[in-house]
Design goal:
Elements (H helix, E strand, L loop, with lengths): L1 E8 L2 E7 L8 E10 L2 H7 L15 E9 L11 E4 L2 E2 L5 H4 L10 E2 L11 E5 L3 E4 L5 H4 L2 H14 L7 E4 L3 H13 L4 E4 L3 H9 L4 E3 L2 H11 L5 E6 L4 H10 E9 L13 H7 L2 E4 L6 H11 L11 E4 L3 H6 L10 E4 L2
Parallel strand pairs: 10-11, 10-13, 11-12, 13-14, 14-15, 16-17
Antiparallel strand pairs: 1-2, 3-4, 3-8, 3-17, 4-5, 5-9, 6-7
Helix pairs in contact: 4-5, 4-10
Length: 341
């Protein structure tokens, strides 16, 4: 038997004893060691997202060891550390062939539309398992999935060296955006958040300018970009008013990277003529998949990301209720992880 943290209803976890699942053909059984709490998990916990799938075991930012393999799996080794791509597509449709798995009509996501990783074991498609070096700590490996989301956003935005970028939101994902942008060579990088502590952390990890007063952001951006506006604005919070602000911050020909999740009612009024005449664009991106996961793991393995602020807060699986309820009280910890032993 194994323990699993089941979100029975919004705001309420129950620790259940369940049989350890057995891997079928083409599957792998992963013994989970670390799981990060994602902003999406908080939305699910608060009843704002995926409520129709409850009761469910959430959790999708995870690492562990390969514990057992189903038949026909020949390219994985029992005992190896691994991370897992959470996105399960049909593999044959138009979108899967283009690595746009979130648009697959039959797409499933571990911990969002089906049971996930807040448990001691999980069975996953073996094709989605990515072996990881044994010497990399589990708390770092559990950052692979959120970093992959940021990798995909940068890829979609075509970020390159010397481009000015505004990151709205200096939470865990905003901080990762800043770090990856710095690695790519974007400059200057301007980060905005109401939390002075998180803005300070973002500057420490790569931002050139930090803004905590929303009324000052436009002036800072214009000064830093010789009055043009930013090449790219990343909205990493998920609020319609901030998306509207992003439109005012991009230069002519600039780009908005739509990343922060709003509610289904979130809408953005746009001046269509302005977008046409200025050749602006908006591209959405939310989850890393396929090569994004491999690239994120490579960046972590080779020390391109500063992870200290992401790995300090951990809770046992039995303490998951407290971990979620107290999450907002720990702004200096960019990530909270569930440690499973």
């Amino acid at each position: 038997m194994m323990k699993a943290a089941v979100l029975t209803s919004p705001g309420q976890f129950a620790i259940e004893e369940r049989p350890i699942p057995k891997p079928g053909r083409g599957e792998a059984l992963i013994k989970i060691t670390r799981v990060g709490i994602c902003g999406t998990d908080l939305h699910i916990f608060n009843g704002h997202y995926a409520a129709e799938h409850l009761p469910m075991v959430p959790g999708h930012e995870f690492t562990g060891t390969i514990y057992a393999l189903g038949s026909e799996v020949t390219d994985l080794v029992i005992g190896d550390k691994a991370v897992v791509d959470m996105n399960i597509g049909c593999q044959t449709c138009y979108w899967c062939r283009r690595n746009e798995i979130l648009n697959c009509p039959n797409m499933q996501q571990m911990g969002i539309t089906m049971d996930g990783a807040f448990a001691e074991f999980i069975v996953v498609p073996a094709r989605l398992v990515i072996p990881a070096p044994a010497h990399i700590p589990d708390e770092m490996l559990a950052l692979t999935e959120p970093l992959a989301c940021v990798v995909r956003a940068a890829r979609k935005a075509d970020v390159t060296f010397g481009q000015s970028v505004v990151v709205i939101g200096a939470g865990p994902i905003g901080n990762l955006h800043v770090q990856l942008l710095r690695t790519i060579g974007a400059a200057p990088i301007i980060v905005a958040d109401l939390s002075a502590d998180r803005v300070a952390m973002a500057i420490e990890t790569g931002a050139d300018f930090g803004v905590t007063d929303p009324s000052e952001l436009e002036a800072v951006v214009m000064t830093a970009t010789q009055g043009r506006g930013a090449d790219i604005v990343v909205e990493s919070v998920g609020h319609p008013a901030l998306y509207a602000q992003a439109v005012k911050l991009i230069r002519k020909g600039g780009h908005i990277a739509a990343f922060g999740l709003t509610g289904p009612e979130g809408e953005l009024p746009l001046n269509i003529l302005q977008i046409i005449l200025e050749e602006n664009s908006i591209k959405g991106s939310v989850a890393g998949m396929g090569q994004d996961m491999h690239d994120a793991l490579t960046l972590l393995v080779h020390g391109r990301i500063k992870t200290a602020a992401f790995t300090q807060a951990s809770y046992a699986l039995d303490e998951i209720q407290d971990a979620f309820e107290s999450y907002a009280a720990r702004p200096s910890n960019l990530k909270t992880q569930i440690k499973i032993e």
